[in-house]
């Protein structure tokens, strides 16, 4: 850094002429072989032939060196090779006095202005002030504040974010140097030899002031509590350079005097000083003739200082800086040269330990060079310039020729299909020899076919997905306005935030919240269990009640949900990070629905047992409910049978496919013992019949009373006709879709799907104790009790099941003729063999169990109201409720042959659609819920719940599932006899 003492009327001729000329002669220097640093690069800066270097600094963020000259020009150099990076003018005439680097660019100080530029050379702002008359130095206080000083009786505290200055008057004669040792003190050195120590927190008043040199101060620097200075002393009426460096301990300043100070002698009078940041107690002293000495500050008597010489080109060495790693030193002189020095064995020094990458301009791609006699050069590799007229070159093909289009395969020869024999999923057929061996296996498209396909693509446009169905990334701001959320939810109903991957269950949480009997049960539940999902759901529902329509978070429930080992075993917990976008949300939410109902049921029973045990001070006993069938489910654990409700993985699997067991054969979960029955009398009921048709009692909770579907499962061996029966209970019914392996006469409407799922009938291989082998077994389910709330898992996990909701009725092979002449079938009505050639009795017509409007069935419309009749033989008849009363039932010819009386209706329930959870096939997929809400004395209204977005929808939009992007997952029907508490206002 250069200080302009001529402006203060201080003679400077002694620096170059006079009695000190011999001391600055190059031949006075003795070469030192032990020098630590040596020159690495030397460049003539921009404008160096006219102006000298006046400021130089290492960049603190990138591998750059910044230089300013006396003509107001700034140039930067990259790396140890000093490659020129940027060069620009900051002032038309004034020299650059000082430069500092910040994260967003640099600040260059001239005599009367401060310029801010980015590193690429683009100016951002120029700051000028009447208080800036003869500026000299800069100091970077923090990211938003600069301190400027000069040959004037004031300091300027500048806020660089607001560009607002604060003037600090000083008593000293100017401030030529501003340096800090890393603490709160900053040393301000004036040209008259005075040094003032100021606190950055209160810079208006100096903490300590003392005189360092009698005539003039040349330079100073601080490291910790050590301060080094160099300057001039007054001798015989003139200023004489002092051939030593003074070291001060700022901790021992008393009454303006230093108690502890010592000097370090140098071979040549120092002009500039700088501490080495990477070393403690090491400093660099530079004299005007280019003599550099590495000093040990804490060793005053050390004579082994490392010295070396900088080539000044017969001029004065005026500026110096040290990199933050101390691996590089840079020196500038009045001849316009920059010299970079580094340690002897370090040829690739770095300026910062963690420098960021420097932004360079994109390289200009030039034309390849080719020899005149080169005959192998491909001229097509040379890009053609764009035409100015907007036309294209002749060799530029249209875009449709660059699209990847798969060729259409030829259809399979009908002769192959005619003679093909199936072995499982693989078909075998002899080669008809109708094609040659090397014939093209695909259809060749000509130009006309391509144009026709292009026109058809333009005509066929997919139905867009409405915005309120798509995944919305919104976050609730607790400390500010939420205008975006208010636009998405103007209903006043509370939404749920989706901040974690397990928030996929928000739609089902809203369904449970607006299912008023479930909500009342959970709000009344309390227990002492640490992670109880029922308690967390009750707390969440209470928070939704008191939120006043503000969005809520289900984080506490999800935190407890992650601790349940059964949920993790069933794959219901998604990872926090890197969640797989290919997760099947359709199967996931249905498994979650089945799991949460079983979990709440078990937790309520467990709490009830503990409360009774505390009341009677004895082990809990089974609560008996008369006239309710009970299923023995004693899972063996370590050789013993346990009474408590136990989960198994099979209970929560998704809907069964056509080759798997039905869901009612998998779902258990009811516990209990008969009175007086010991461990030896308890056996799994899956393989044994209840003795003497006794019905055991069953423990029930509020959840099982609302959702439980009681069934009687009858298994009959088709070889020996042995029958076994068992009782089963499920909390959610899974739809069973028709397939090629099922009976061909099954109707495919939603009502028939539901009827076949409630009372399933199928044939599957099973173990028979009488036959002692696996035999074809006819399995038939009969409904014992209908629930007040009918929860239906709609499946849709396979392509065939999804296509049902998109396309409606599937086209399958024609139904084979049955009931023709010939020998009657031995299985009669219960025959499940496809294509059976024997005679069968007439089956019940589809009119009794299907909707009266077949057009709606083909359009995949959910019925709003259902009328389910439970017959005395366990079969169910489902009709869509109409305004006119239903016709009386005719006797069912398919009843048991042993019964002579006609089938009568045992019970009848009217169900109304109350909620539905659907999956939006978008990218990413999304789960939303249709919920019917009703306030006091107000008609029910349907709302679409999409996390924080809640919008009202019409009934037609709720029941229509013909769109390709809309797949139902869970549907809830509520019986008319179910008590409905009033919802919160």
UniProtKB/TrEMBL annotation:
It comes from the Eukaryota. Residues 494-976 form the USP domain. Residues 670-699, 881-907 are annotated as: Disordered. SUPFAM superfamilies: Cysteine proteinases (SSF54001), WD40 repeat-like (SSF50978). GO terms for cellular component: P-body; PAN complex. Pfam families: PAN2_N, UCH_1. InterPro entries: PAN2-PAN3_catalytic_subunit (IPR050785), PAN2_N (IPR048841), PAN2_UCH_dom (IPR028881), Papain-like_cys_pep_sf (IPR038765), USP (IPR028889), WD40/YVTN_repeat-like_dom_sf (IPR015943), WD40_repeat_dom_sf (IPR036322). GO terms for molecular function: poly(A)-specific ribonuclease activity. GO terms for biological process: nuclear-transcribed mRNA poly(A) tail shortening. PANTHER family: DEADENYLATION COMPLEX CATALYTIC SUBUNIT PAN2, PAN2-PAN3 DEADENYLATION COMPLEX CATALYTIC SUBUNIT PAN2. This is PAN2-PAN3 deadenylation complex catalytic subunit PAN2.
């Amino acid at each position: 850094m250069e200080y302009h003492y001529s402006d203060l009327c201080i003679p400077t001729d002694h620096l170059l002429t006079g009695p000190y000329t011999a001391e600055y002669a190059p031949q006075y220097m003795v070469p030192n072989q032990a020098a630590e640093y040596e020159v690495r690069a030397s460049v003539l800066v921009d404008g160096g032939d006219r102006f000298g270097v006046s400021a130089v600094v290492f960049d603190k963020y990138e591998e750059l060196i910044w230089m300013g000259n006396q003509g107001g020009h700034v140039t930067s150099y990259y790396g140890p090779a000093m490659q020129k990076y940027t060069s620009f003018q900051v002032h038309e005439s004034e020299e650059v006095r000082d430069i500092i680097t910040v994260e967003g660019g640099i600040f260059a100080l001239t005599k009367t202005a401060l310029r801010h530029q980015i590193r690429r050379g683009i100016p951002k702002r120029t700051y000028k002030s009447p208080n800036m008359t003869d500026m000299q130095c800069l100091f970077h206080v923090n990211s938003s504040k600069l301190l400027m000083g000069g040959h004037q009786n004031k300091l300027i505290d500048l806020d660089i974010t607001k560009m607002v200055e604060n003037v600090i008057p000083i008593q000293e004669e100017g401030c030529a140097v501003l340096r800090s040792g890393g603490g709160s003190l900053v040393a301000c050195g004036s040209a008259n030899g005075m040094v003032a120590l100021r606190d950055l927190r209160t810079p208006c008043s100096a903490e300590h002031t003392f005189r360092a040199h009698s005539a003039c101060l040349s330079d100073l620097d601080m490291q910790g509590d050590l301060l080094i200075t160099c300057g001039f002393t007054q001798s015989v009426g003139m200023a004489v350079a002092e051939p030593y460096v003074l070291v001060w301990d700022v901790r021992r300043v008393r009454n303006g005097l230093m108690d502890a100070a010592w000097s370090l002698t140098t071979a040549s009078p120092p002009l500039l000083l700088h501490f080495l940041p990477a070393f403690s107690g090491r400093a660099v002293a530079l004299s005007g003739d280019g003599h550099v000495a590495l000093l040990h500050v804490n060793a005053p008597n050390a004579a082994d200082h490392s010295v070396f010489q900088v080539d000044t080109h017969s001029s004065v060495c005026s500026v110096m800086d040290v990199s933050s790693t101390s691996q590089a030193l840079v020196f500038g002189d009045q001849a316009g040269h920059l010299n970079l020095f580094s340690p002897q064995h370090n040829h690739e020094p770095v300026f910062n330990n963690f420098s960021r990458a420097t932004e360079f301009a994109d390289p200009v791609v030039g034309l390849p060079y080719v020899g005149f006699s080169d005959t192998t050069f491909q001229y097509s590799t040379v890009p053609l310039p764009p035409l100015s007229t907007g036309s294209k070159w002749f060799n530029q093909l249209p875009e449709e020729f660059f699209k990847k289009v798969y060729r259409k395969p030829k259809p399979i020869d009908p002769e192959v299909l005619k003679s093909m024999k199936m072995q499982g999923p693989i078909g075998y057929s002899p080669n008809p020899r109708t094609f040659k061996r090397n014939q093209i296996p695909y259809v060749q498209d000509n130009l006309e076919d391509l144009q026709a396909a292009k026109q058809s693509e333009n005509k066929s446009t997919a139905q867009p997905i409405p915005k309120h169905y798509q995944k919305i990334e919104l976050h609730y701001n607790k400390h500010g306005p939420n205008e975006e959320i208010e636009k998405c939810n103007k209903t006043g109903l509370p939404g749920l935030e989706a901040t974690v991957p397990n928030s996929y269950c928000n739609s089902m949480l809203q369904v449970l919240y607006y299912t008023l009997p479930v909500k009342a049960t959970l709000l009344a539940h309390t227990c002492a269990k640490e992670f109880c999902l029922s308690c967390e759901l009750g707390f969440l529902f209470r928070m939704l009640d008191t939120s006043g329509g503000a969005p809520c978070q289900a984080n506490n429930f999800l935190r407890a949900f992650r601790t349940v080992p059964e949920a993790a075993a069933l794959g219901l917990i998604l990872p926090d990070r890197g969640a797989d976008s290919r997760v099947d949300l359709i199967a996931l939410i249905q498994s979650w629905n089945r799991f949460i109902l079983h979990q709440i049921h078990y937790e309520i029973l467990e709490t009830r047992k503990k409360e009774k045990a505390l009341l009677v001070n004895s082990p809990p006993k089974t609560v008996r409910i008369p006239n309710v069938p009970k299923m023995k489910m004693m899972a063996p654990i370590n050789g013993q049978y346990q009474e408590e409700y136990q989960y198994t993985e099979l209970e929560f699997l998704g809907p069964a496919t056509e080759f798997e067991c039905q869901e009612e054969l998998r779902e258990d979960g009811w516990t209990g013992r008969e009175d007086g029955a010991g461990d030896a009398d308890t056996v799994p009921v899956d393989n044994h019949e209840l003795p003497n048709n006794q019905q055991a009692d069953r423990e029930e909770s509020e959840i099982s009373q609302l959702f439980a579907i009681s069934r009687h499962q009858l298994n009959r061996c088709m070889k020996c006709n042995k029958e076994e029966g068992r009782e089963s209970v499920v909390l959610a019914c899974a739809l069973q879709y028709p397939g090629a392996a099922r009976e061909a006469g099954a109707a495919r409407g939603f009502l028939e799907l539901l009827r076949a799922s409630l009372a399933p009938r199928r044939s599957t291989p099973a173990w028979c104790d009488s036959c002692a082998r696996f035999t074809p077994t006819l399995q038939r389910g009969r409904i014992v009790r209908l629930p007040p709330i009918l929860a239906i898992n709609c499946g849709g996990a396979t392509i065939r099941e999804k296509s049902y909701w998109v396309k409606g009725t599937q086209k399958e092979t024609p139904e084979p003729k049955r009931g023709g002449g010939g020998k009657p079938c031995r299985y009669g009505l219960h025959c499940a063999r496809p294509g059976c050639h024997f005679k069968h009795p007439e089956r019940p017509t589809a009119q009794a169990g299907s909707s009266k409007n077949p057009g709606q069935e083909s359009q995949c419309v959910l019925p709003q109201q259902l009328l389910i009749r439970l017959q005395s033989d366990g079969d169910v008849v489902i009709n869509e409720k109409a305004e006119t009363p239903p016709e009386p039932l005719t006797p069912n010819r398919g009843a048991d042959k042993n019964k002579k009386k006609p089938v009568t209706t045992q019970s009848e329930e009217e169900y109304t659609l109350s909620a539905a959870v659907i999956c939006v096939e978008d990218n990413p997929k999304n789960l939303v819920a249709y919920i019917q809400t009703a306030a006091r004395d107000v008609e029910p209204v349907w709302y679409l719940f999409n996390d924080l977005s809640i919008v009202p929808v019409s009934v037609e939009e709720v029941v229509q599932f013909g769109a390709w992007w809309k797949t139902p997952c869970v549907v809830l029907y509520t019986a008319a006899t179910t008590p409905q508490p009033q919802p919160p206002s």
